[in-house]
Amino acid sequence: MMDALLVDDSTTMRLRLRRLLEAQRGVSVTDHADTASALVEAQMRAFDLVLVVCRMPALDGIAFIRCMRTIPHYAQVPMVMITDDVSEAVRLAALEAGATDFLDRSMPGVELTVRLRNVIRLAKAVRRLAEQAAWLDGEVEAALRHMREREEEIIFRLALAVEYRDNDTGDHTWRVARYSQIVAEALGLPPEACRSLYLAAPLHDVGKVGIPDGVLLKPGRLDPDEFALIQTHAAIGQRILGGSASELIRLAAEIAASHHERWDGSGYPEGLAGPEIPLAARIVAVADVFDALTTSRPYKEAMSFEAALACLRADSGRHFDPACVEAFCARWPEIRAAGDRAPAPIRPVTEPWARVPILLREIAASPAPSDRRVHAPPVPAAREPGAPEPAGPRAKPRPAGAPDGAAGERAGPSGGRDTRTDGRRRPRLPRGPAARTDDAHPVGP
């Protein structure tokens, strides 16, 4: 069914045109005697054809067509001017206003019928083209959405692969992403920018794939050479992600390269200071350090949320952008909610995590198969006198029914015991200095 709008102050001409239009199959006519009421209805309904008389008491036909063309739906809809003045001046004014064709009131019935039939065919063709264009727009949008979802999933899987080296699940990856998104929202960034930061933040430590386990997982302080090696992960991450055609990957490269820069210029790798540091990297720096402080690592125990927040405030203006710390504090309830809740294996389909499983280390309880063992770095102080270096698993699976620890906590030297292959318990390792956190305050000897 095609809807036509007819506007004419002459009752006789309005009835005549209505009969001619409705004689065509599939045409429904709505008529008005004045342009003001017709314009109101045109804004509420989507007509496929508009016919208007040139001379009207209030708003004339030319002004009416000009107003109609400003409504998005009527940009291409055929509009016919009905007139008894066929002068060139009137025709030119009507065409400039957006008229498609003209109908003369004195036109013979046969000719008028044929002209109306042609206009109706044109209106139907325009409608089909509009419907096809809308369908194509929908298909393109669906394809782009699918492509973005695949890109997002690849990013999160790559981030999980990096984190799998020193963390049993993807909790840290998700929390840093969520914290960063919350801070970005508090800073008033556009929704699209907040979403992009949420997706790019998980790759901030992708450069750690180039750091040996003996340094990355060392329980204790790093010596100067080891700390220098740790620092190279920022440049490695930038090289891995840099030069991409994807705007999202380029943002991730910017974050990977600069998230260890400090507001006072004492960070690495470039020693950038203040606004020289990209805003995305300044935001992720706050999120990354907070999560590093509040989770267990092989070289330290977890800090309480309140104590970690106090550390951020103390380093505001030195390590961190004061505006980012202020935004972080302003959204504290949301930060706590994100930190207290580990991401579920299944999330809403709009989230990349819906397609990314939680990665658990493939280690049997005891004894561990020889091809599944993960050797811990030598720690002479923790060994029994005369005992060989143990080759037990780095992380022991949590027994059934055991209470959960902090989100993202991994058993190891600072939390839980390893088991020897002969079944005897290995003594608890001495705790390394709590001052060492690679993401917060890395130190030398």
Automatic annotation (TrEMBL):
* Residue ranges constituting the HD-GYP domain according to the UniProt record: 147-344
* Stored Pfam families: HD_5, Response_reg
Spell out the InterPro entries in the cross-references. CheY-like_superfamily, Cyclic_di-GMP/3'3'-cGAMP_PDE, HD/PDEase_dom, HD_GYP_dom, Sig_transdc_resp-reg_receiver
Q: Where is the Response regulatory domain?
A: 3-120
- Annotated region Disordered: where? 367-445
The Basic and acidic residues compositionally biased stretches are 436-445
Q: Where is the composition biased (Low complexity)?
A: 392-412
Q: Which domain of life is it from?
A: Bacteria
Record protein name field: HD domain-containing protein
- Naturally occurring in which organism (per UniProt): Methylobacterium longum
